[in-house]
Amino acid sequence: MRFQPTVEQRDFVRSLNAMLTAADSPSAARAWAAGEPGQGRAVRARLAVAGVFALAVPEAYEGVGVHPVEVALACEEVGRHAVPGPVVETVAAAELLTRLAELGDDAPAKRLLPGIASGEVTATLAAPETGGYALDADVADVVLVVGGERGDELRVAPGHGPVRASADPVRRLARPAPGGELLAAGDRVARAGRCAAERAALATAAQSLGVGCALLDRTVAYVRQRHQFGVPVGSFQAVKHRLADALLGLEFARPLVWGAALTLRTADVAAAKVAAGEAAYVAARTALQLHGAIGYTDELDLALWLRKARPLRDAWGTPAWCRQQVLRAAVPAGD
Questions:
Q1: 290 — alpha (psi -120 to 50), left (phi > 0) or beta?
Q2: For the chain, what is the HEC assignment?
Q3: Percentage of the chain with pLDDT > 90?
Q4: Which percentage of the chain shows pLDDT scores above 70?
Q5: Residue 108 near residue 184, CB atoms below 8 Å
Q6: Nearest-angstrom CA–CA distance, 271 and 66
Q7: Residue 16: pLDDT band by 50, 70, 90 thresholds?
Q8: Separation of alpha carbons 335 and 329, rounded Å
Q9: Phi and psi at residue 142, to the nearest 5°
Q10: 85: closest CA among 176, 23, 170?
Q11: Is residue 120 over pLDDT 90?
Q12: What pLDDT, on a 0 to 100 scale, did the predictor assign at position 124?
């Protein structure tokens, strides 16, 4: 089977790439990490105008219909350009509200989804899969919390605790304040929450893929222009082998991500998540080694992608958890 984007999808990706390049998203990411979200909000507004968030919202709630493949392609560009903010979490929040509406409780969807689709509402999500933390809660307009003893309560957090940086300073985490308005409760919340976590895992896999590709592209460009012994270091066999290994990992992960976006099966999403996360991490280690000492400096934009690879590998499903899901689907119960 051959996985290839359609002409329309390729045009969509090209337009996002051009837009995010012009927006200077690395500069926005640096400002975001420093607690200055203005430039990052402007980049997010451009994503909304391009229809990225509307692609995660049904037409009944002023979206363009749910298109997982296009969302995955957009998230890959988000990773490739180091776009700051809770893009994945907004997609997951839209999935949560959509599933909840399908299960018979559409009041939260009617209230929040139109704003998410238009980009007027920046939503983030805290769930059992996030360890209770919400990404960029201080910047989000709405912090949704899936909680309760069985993950069967959905609330709007009234605030948040202290903001702290993860290994990636651009990923700013906070615990939502307890309590808040109860939007829904019961088994339907738990079911919708599981669907949202899977959609977040898929979007994170796509984002990881973009991060890995950006790291590889920048490293290839660097080893071509850096010379030793009168020749580019990229001509050394050992360097070629490291780059080839990184490329193979990313090329192996790409069809898994696209395939998971088509099937939306739990095992497929888990396989895509672990493959893309590990490939991006290998690309990060390769980039760091081949850049030498300069790779450790924060002044180099490369650091924006280097610091993303590890947190994204573990976000919305660690490699161990993802492998467990794949194994569970491959081995029938009782065997």
A1: alpha
A2: CCCCCCHHHHHHHHHHHHHHHHCCHHHHHHHHHCCCCHHHHHHHHHHHHCCCCHHHCCHHHCCCCCCHHHHHHHHHHHHHCCCCCCHHHHHHHHHHHHHHHHCCCCHHHHHHHHHHHHCCCCEEEECHHHCCCEECCCCCCEEEEEECCCCCEEEECCCECCCEECCCCCCEEECECCCCEEEEECHHHHHHHHHHHHHHHHHHHHHHHHHHHHHHHHHHHHHHHCEECCEEHHHCHHHHHHHHHHHHHHHHHHHHHHHHHHHCCHHHHHHHHHHHHHHHHHHHHHHHHHHHHHHHCCCCCHHHHHHHHHHHHHCCCCHHHHHHHHHHHHCCCCC
A3: 81
A4: 97
A5: yes
A6: 22
A7: very high
A8: 12
A9: -135, 130
A10: 170
A11: yes
A12: 96
Q: Give the model confidence (pLDDT) of 95-104 as tens digits.
A: 999 999 999 9
Tell the residue number behind the tokens 């996030």, with chain if given: 130
Mean pLDDT of 46-55: 95
Calpha distance 63→242 (Å, rounded)? 43
Who's near 180: CB < 8 A, 6+ residues apart? 145, 155, 156, 157, 158
- Burial (CB count <10 Å: 0-12, 13-18, 19+), residue 163: middle
**One-letter amino acid for residue 40 of the chain:** G
Q: How far is 104 from 101, CA to CA, in rounded Å? A: 5
Does the pTM of the predicted model rise above 0.85? yes
- Calpha distance 186→104 (Å, rounded): 12
Predicted confidence band at 332 (pLDDT cuts at 50, 70, 90)?
Answer: low
Task: Tell me the pLDDT of the chain averaged across its residues.
Answer: 92
Q: What is the dihedral of CA 296, 302, 303, 306, to 10 degrees?
A: -100
Q: CA-CA distance, 270 to 74, in Å (whole number)?
A: 19
